[in-house]
Amino acid sequence: MSKDELSKKIRALLKERNGILLAHFYQRDEVQELADFTGDSLGLSFEAAKTGADVIVFAGVHFMAESASILSPDKTVLLPRAEAGCALADTITVEALEKEKKKYPGAAVVTYINSSAAVKAASDICCTSANAVRVVQSVEEKRVLFIPDGNLARYTAKFTDKEIIPWGGACPVHQDLTPEEVLAVRARHPGAKFAAHPECREEVLALADFVGSTSGIIDYAGKMSGNELIFGTELGILYQLRTRYPAKTFIPASEKMICETMKLTTLEDILKALTAMAPAVKVPEAIRAPAKRCLDRMLTVG
Ligand code: SF4
How far does residue 175's CA lie from ligand 1's centre (Å)? Predict the structure, then answer.
């Protein structure tokens, strides 16, 4: 089936089922093109919370579909590729978190949204890369266990007086970008600005003109002086950058920055999921209620 035929069938099924297609900025171009809403984790969480649709098709990874199910328990949440997980979220379990909490009694647990529903349920408040500093500042406790991304934890610690205790997790896509790679690309594009995602390692962030979430990087690309931007995040962001700012030039800091699980979902998978209304993600109520408190606290901070 051609891309146009697939898109038409998906659109027709979305209409029939009163569904909405949400796609993360790291998804394939054709999936982002068809989506009703594209965004980063924070934007997609807000969208999942406020939509009036009965069915949410989540083109993303498992923890994102879980967040949609937590926020909208009465809706059917479809994750077209059930095996699309997040290597960063997998770096911490509830058991490991409980052990860490015992080591630091009285510390607030701030949990990056890239985590399982069960880990969120055992945490105090969620954050994303867009609001991590605001979230840390919002908690009363002076000491914060920041999980699971160690790079984001260390970056956030620079903007607060609170004691941040990082968990040692990392996103392999961002962690693997080296300062040498960035310097080599910069040498080839001496006039270009460099924007990096805070999941990158500290030495890479030190080279950046701008550090921010994927939506932050997209905004920066529009506002920056100059026409060339080197970006240190997953390659899927190129679709948004080129669509929004066709007159500017965007250069990946590394061609290897591809999240394999984000790239699993195809238009065929979306069509199959909408036809079969499966695979669905449903968070059990015993986990959903405490996980929702954790997400709601974050949504209040903004
Ligand atoms: S890019 Fe990294 S953090 Fe994002 S889904 Fe992939 S593995 Fe997880």
Answer: 10
Is 34 inside any structural domain?
Answer: yes
Q: Model confidence over 228-254: pLDDT tens digits?
A: 999 999 999 999 999 999 999 999 999
Same domain assignment for residues 145 and 103: yes
How many domains is the chain built from?
3
Asked whether 14 lines ligand 1 (CB < 6 A), one says no
Q: Is residue 164 part of a domain?
A: yes
The reply to whether 127 and 97 lie within a common domain is yes
- Cis before 148? omega within 30: yes
Q: What are the C-alpha distances in Å from 174 to residues 12, 43, 150, 201, 233?
A: 37, 20, 12, 7, 6
Q: Are 23 and 31 in contact (CB under 8 A)?
A: yes
Distance 257 CA to ligand 1 centre (A): 10
d(CA 142, CA 146): 12
For the Cβ of 235 lying below 6 angstroms from any atom of ligand 1, the answer is: no
pLDDT of residue 109 exceeding 90, the answer is yes
Strand ranges of the sheet holding 55-59, from the earlier edge strand across to the other edge: 37-39, 19-24, 55-59, 76-78
Q: What is the span of the domain harbouring residue 185?
A: 173-252
From ligand 1's centre to the CA of 15, what distance in Å?
Answer: 30
Q: For residue range 35-44, what is the model confidence (pLDDT) as tens digits? A: 999 998 778 8
> Considering only CA atoms, which residue is closest to atom 1 of ligand 1?
259
CATH number for the domain that contains residue 33:
3.40.50.10800
From ligand 1's centre to the CA of 223, what distance in Å? 26
Q: List pLDDT tens digits, range 75-85.
A: 999 999 999 99
